[in-house]
Design goal:
Layout (H helix, E strand, L loop, with lengths): L1 H7 L20 H11 L6 H12 L3 H4 L3 H4 L3 H14 L3 H15 L9 H14 L4 H9 L9 H11 L6 H6 L8 H12 L2 H13 L3 H11 L5 H10 L6 H14 L5 H10 L8 H12 L6 H16 L3 H7 L38
Helix pairs in contact: 2-3, 6-8, 7-8, 8-10, 9-10, 10-12, 12-14, 13-14, 13-15, 14-16, 15-16, 16-17, 16-18, 17-18, 18-19
Length: about 375
Amino acid sequence: MPLVLQRLKQVQKGETFYLHKARLFTQSKETISEIMELLQAADMDANTKFHLTNILIHSDLSLLEPYLDVLAQSEDLNKRIQTRKNIANLENDALFDAFEHFIKEAYGKYFNEIETFYGDQLIHELANRKSVSPDYIMHVLDSYDPDDFSYETIFYTKLAGEMQLETATPLLCSFLGDEDDVLPETAVRALVRIGTESVITTLAEKYAAASDEYYRLFASDVFGKIKLPASEKALLELLPNENDITNATKLADELCELGSTIGIPLVHELVENGYDSGHLNLTEKLYAHCVMSDSLLPQRNLWKRELEEEEKRRAKPNEIDRLLKGKGSVPMLTPFKKMDKIGRTDPCPCGSGKKYKKCCSNA
């Protein structure tokens, strides 16, 4: 976290700096003090302030004690801190009852209608106390019914991840191919949180045998985030045998994320022969990997020039920007028609036959 804050102080005007994952870092008295100072800076943009505040919300409550009077000036921040305090003060039975009640109240709601912060804090506290038996968690996960639209399995999957419940690995791996919109992504995060070699070996076996294209896309998200030799070994074995160009692109990206120097020739071959550029920019990922690993491929300088030119093109105002900023009449744009809420398993309204999240929601 000190390195993140050091880099943040060096950000130039107009430069994009991503902080959305910084809340996952462990905080200290020193980093909290720096964050509080940064929040008082007059030239701090609203987006950065939002993420800095989010870091505070997820920090150890004891570190926030000296600043509670200042933080109380923000109604939303004060409410969330108080929520965490209330949860921390619950007895074990009351905490479990609150979790079960939260799941029951979520039934029938859209995911964005659920107070996920409250649910996540309940899960975090339950995991810290280890007050739910692993056997009971396994029972809930093993009882999953795809036709039951409750959120029970989703939130118990989160709990299994927070508790790093390795025995849940086979069940969590099986959820990656589920038709639900939320469960596969939740299972990915839980598997990464468990993060053991058995997760990699189990997943590699299931990946090789999987026929569902979406299973492989979700599964590939796990390998690059578990920084173990087994992850690199699995990717090096799976990539040459992957015939789907999108899945191959994702596996190559995970090799870059792992920092695999052995995998550079495989990724390079895919970049040269063609990859799914609509899914991600593998050239950019490979170039960054080569720079960090000091690997001198012949095309490295060419990629650098191409990426710099692309960045310049993106920085230029597009036609719509010019129209909106220009003087005189501006053509009337057709207003976006807000669609009705689409559920977790509803088909896409475009008529493709796919689930909404796997179709137009990614457009």
